[in-house]
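Hello,

Following up on my earlier ticket. Below are the three sequence lines again, exactly as submitted.
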Amino acid sequence: MSDVSSASLRRPSMAKACWQLFLAESKLLIRRPMDVFNPLLFGFLVTLMFPLGLGPDPATLAKLAPGLVWIIALLSCLLATDQLFREDFDDGSLALWLLSPQPMYFLVMTRVFVHWLASGFIITLVSPILAIMLNIPMQAIPALFLSILIGSVSLIFIGAIGAALTVGLKNSSILLTLIILPLYVPVLIFGAAGVQAATMDMAAGSYLAILAAFMFLAVSLAPLAIYGGLKINLDAG
Amino acid sequence: MKSLVQFFFKLGSPNWFYKVSSYLVPVFALLSIGLMSWGLVAGLLYAPMDFKQGNSYRIIYIHVPSSFIALSCYYMMALLAAVYLIWRTKMAAIVLRSCAVIGAAMTFIALVTGAIWGKPTWGTWWVWDARVTSMLVLFFIYMGIFALSKAYEREELGSKAAAILALVGTVNIPIIYWSVDWWFALHQGATLKLTEKSAMDSAMLFPLLVMIAATYCLYVLLILLHSRAEIIRSEQRKQWVKDLVK
Amino acid sequence: MTTSSKALLTIQNLSCERGFRQLFQQLNFELFAGEVIRIAGPNGAGKSTLLNVLAGISSDFDGDILYQNQPIKDVSYEYRENLCYLGHAKAVKTPLTPRENLQWFCSMYPTRSDTSIDAVLEQVGLMYFKDQICAQLSAGQKQRVALARLIISAAKIWILDEPFTAIDQSGVQQFETLIAEFAQDGGAVLVTTHHALNITGNYRCLDLGDYL
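Thanks for your patience. The regenerated structure is below:
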């Protein structure tokens, strides 16, 4: 071993840190695909419940479908978010990356983005299927797909705030729901309204623009709160 | 300027806050009792009857002040949250937790009185109108902050988490209010013009203003009392509290 | 801070309480390059809390912590670069292989450019397991992954919280040698263990029981 103080260093750049985090998290997901399937399975099960509760009448379902699909997407995102930081917290790797000399803002952003790929994005991919099962008019499918694609980013980033604030707590899922669902209100309103407009052959562009504004707001501000929440829980653990 | 800074610095110390507030409590107690009895008597007995709603409108003397405070309490909480996260002032955290409890209570009163008012006027207990919906969302946000502040074993961590959530809410609440208004405008079928009141008679308005002032005093009183109880609880091992109990 | 010393880490009047429990009070000590300090003390004296505070995980304390005579808050970046923390949980991702775990670490922390991941894995005896996912490794082998992280890191200070749990006798010896070598080369180590370290050289014990 050479002298510690004079050994030449490899200093990883921020971009490399984010990229490697991205790779590592992606590998984790690929090696444990059940984590990805669970929220999907949940989505399909809830979709099954609606016709059973509301009756199979296609017209009724078609009328309610925009809101229903959005609520299913929202709940699936919430469900997926609960476990977001849990494992990193338990196995100690959260401490490892929160103590690293890297800008936390971007690491957190990368980490949550990977989570979105595995949850929000996958839910977006199947949302047209759920919508068709609920008999949504075909012309609304593109608007539905785009609105959930954009909206789910906000949902995941906002949800991550709750996940970060409750990661060290036992039985946190009810608390997480209480914290997060009120914050989901604007996204749900504009997402569902956009799809509703599309079912009536109206342009959904303005709704998507507002959803995109929410998305940028959530992506840029949420990592600060997430970092704060994670630090609190590390301190508690 | 320096004395002002010192004042705030002192205010941050639980011990000092406890001493100062023991003078403020009677003042605000008297103010709120006095103003409230005046406002209630004037509003319930002497204000004229509304020609459309009859006597049922009189619930506004409770409903309106509590809705005011439900929202303004949040501003105060957001401010305290920022103060706490930036300067780590212990008192800010204690008052913040009091704000969450009292804000939730005020929101609850506003919701319940609104429902009671709604029955005779709209014929139903609950209407998904923009204000009611926003108020309900606000109630859940208060409850979330309160629950989070109690969820941690270590008090200061609970306070930090609650402060972060309060700040997240500060960004979110205007958006929630705006989108709920927009949502209501979109879905509004029959117009409920009731909330848009015709110019109020001054004999009706004056007791309302008195009641708003009274409720603000009550609010300050409740915050002080709750914070004082919290101070004693969290500082129970400190010498000055032990001296106090003797 | 008028007192300037050559110490890597200076702890001044450090006190901690958790809930209504008072942990150590008025703790003063210095950690120099080349030194190993074992933190001892009865249960509940705050050994882990002290390490958490020093590692920057917990910011809830009274007193000052100086890194090369500057408060750690002011030199947070340098401090993080020169610190390697190994906690109770070993931060080994079980679905990843030892190699991938190290890659992940190397992408975040400054590392010694004269040491490659493969060489380090060989040094800790994981050469044959480097491409096997950590879920299939034993607890002791996972611990070795964490060890490999220490070796490849370019940190000047190691903070180790109970590092010897789950490793066998020979592993403990190897770890002790590693710590001693690191100190000889100018590193500094803060460590909590149940039993005394078998290390010669610049090694002392700090009993938190004296500061309650």
